[in-house]
Amino acid sequence: MADEVTLAAVAGAHGVGGEVRLKLFGEGPESLKVHKQLFADGRPLTLKSVRPGSAGAIARFAEIADRGAAEALRGTLLTVPRAALPPLPEGEYYHADLIGLPCVDAAGAPLGTVTGVENFGAGDLLEIERPEGKRALIPFRPGIADWIDGRIVADPGFLA
Q1: CATH number given to 95-159
Q2: Which CATH superfamily is domain 4-83 in?
Q3: Distances (CA, A) of 89 to 67, 93, 94, 142
Q4: Which phi and psi (to 5°) does residue 154 adopt?
């Protein structure tokens, strides 16, 4: 599991008062509101406000007072400690919890490592990097790819 989870990336400045445009990686602006503090390259930023924007969200941080300071954050990832995320109901998970897990077959033979999680509308797909460096997407579904004891147990037929 990752110690930090990326919630957004700063896309640039918004206006002249220090607001920033955000590309969100969570469930919308509401997912940021539960955090009073986000981190930009380890630097704490106090979230004063966040609202929907045309392509994500617009946020204001107490430490960012003008357009120049906002523009300097362009491209910066905004993170929170994994422990700061709210607990989930049984059977739900954060994508960050899956990334980095080993992927094995039913007998325990290594198949690769989870390097990403995608969702194009039909459910989550796990990106598995094979030992030879090739990558494959497999459905994260029971019987195809199961999360068991800290690893993904996958049907190797889906990794061809």
Answers
A1: 2.30.30.240
A2: RimM (2.40.30.60)
A3: 40, 8, 11, 18
A4: -120, 155
- Distance between CA atoms of 131 and 90, rounded to whole angstroms? 32
Q: Is the pTM of this model over 0.85?
A: no
SS3 150: coil
Residue 54 and residue 101: Cα distance in Å, rounded?
35
pLDDT (tens digit, 9 = 90+) per residue, 86-100? 888 887 888 888 999
Q: Which residues, 6+ apart, have CB-to-CB distance to 58 below 8 Å?
A: 14, 19, 20, 21, 22, 50, 51, 52
Q: In angstroms, rounded to a whole number, what is the distance separating the alpha carbons of residues 118 and 111?
A: 19
